[in-house]
Amino acid sequence: MRELDKFRGCMVGGAAGDALGYAIEFIHETQIFRRFGKDGITQYSLRGGVAQFSDDTQMTLFTANGLMNCRENNMQSYTDCIRDSYRDWYLTQAGTYPINANKHCWLLNVPGLFSRRAPGLTCISAIENGAHGTIENPINTSKGCGGVMRVAPIGLYFSGTQTAIEQSDMLAASAAAITHGHELGYIPAAALVHIIREVIESDDITLEQAVLNSTKAMEKLFSGLKHCGRFSELMQLTVELSHCELSTLEAIHRLGQGWVAEEALAISVYCALKYANDFDKAIIASVNHGGDSDSTGSITGNILGAYMGYDAIPDKYKQGLELKELIIELTDDLYEMKCGKMPQEEIKKKYIDAAYEYKNS
Predict the structure, then answer these.
(1) DSSP conformation class of 47
(2) 301 within a domain of the structure (yes/no)
(3) pTM for the complete prediction?
(4) Cα–Cα distance between 174 and 263 in angstroms, integer?
(5) Helix (H, G, I), strand (E, B) or coil at 355
(6) CB within 8 Å of 27: residues ≥ 6 apart
(7) Looking at the 3D structure of the chain, how many domains does it have?
(8) DSSP letters of 66-105?
(9) Omega before 98 cis (within 30°)?
């Protein structure tokens, strides 16, 4: 059950960081501390008693659904299914519930996901134009963080399987490249998935070692790419800063604002390393800056949730979290299908026919 605890930690932790940061995503840094005090926002800002998450968590859920839709065990088929799932997500942003269209994802049967939560314009425009982006034929030159913030389920789904870690890393890069064509738009996605897979597969590895292994893996996997060196340098700086006496905010300023993928991952990794045994401190640090707070909160929550597990997440992040039970249900499906434990009739209803009606939205 430890592995399932890590699965849930990754997915719920990501949603928790997203929800904490979403409330302050577009607020200037000085205003955050003026409004919430010297520590910034430290607990959910509820709307109607609910801690709402952003498009980051929405797209993460659709990534998971896309993985489970795939019937063929090859990376291109997984990429195509994820591509279809993002097209379904787009319907939740462009239309209203219920959708009268062919569905790939049962998540389209969830009214609560039909909420426009400041979706990234790159994601919207790329999917609107067919979502045809690939690493070989990029659809644009964007390196926004919209690719990295949604791929965590890939690291979960292939953990402990015979699929080589390089393959799941490349799938993450391909999933990001659907909408973000710059090298630094998809290399961080591969790195995040590598980190998550390593900490899921081992209870003994330190988070820092997983980060270092991930950086080395990216240098090997993307050795011929122009910007791979820039990514490695930034990750090296991130690890160094996690050992420094600088304040967390000063360190984050050294790494960027998180609007672009490599900076979002760097800030998240820094916060996770700095507070590797304290989910609360890590999440609070990851969102209280003037950049893309929900994305850095989400990625930090993915990493540290996978490392520490669901039981280590404080109750304050579980109470009031939007669609928490749905997140757990989808996560449990991901785990059971990965392990070959999910009943065939349930697979058919949910992930072949997309006919499952979720009752608790």
Answers:
(1) B
(2) yes
(3) 0.98
(4) 19
(5) coil
(6) 35
(7) 1
(8) HHHH--S-SHHHHHHHHHHHHHHHHHHHHS-SSP-S--S-
(9) yes
Q: Which residue, 12, 8, 20, 9, is CA-closest to 297?
A: 20
Determine the longest span between alpha carbons in the chain, in angstroms. Answer: 56
Tracing tokens 């916060």 back to the chain, one arrives at 271
Q: Tell me if 325 is assigned to some domain.
A: yes
What's the rounded Cα separation, in Å, for the pair 64 and 47?
Answer: 26
Whether 298 and 16 have beta carbons less than 8 Å apart is answered as no
The structure tokens listed for 60 are 């993460």
Q: What is the DSSP letter of 50?
A: B
Distance CA(129)–CA(86), nearest Å, equals 12
Query: What is the tens place of the pLDDT at every residue in 9-61?
Result: 999 999 999 999 999 999 999 999 999 999 999 999 999 999 999 999 999 99
Range of the domain at 118: 2-39+48-136+143-352
Residue 357 belongs to a domain: no
User: Which residue reads 């000085």 in tokens?
Assistant: 30
Classify residue 129: in a domain, yes or no.
Answer: yes
Contacts of 188 (CB under 8 A, 6+ apart): 145, 147, 148, 176, 231, 261, 262, 264, 265
Cα–Cα distance between 305 and 299 in angstroms, integer? 10
Over the Cα atoms of the chain, what is R_g? Answer: 18
Residue 53: give its domain's CATH number: 1.10.4080.10
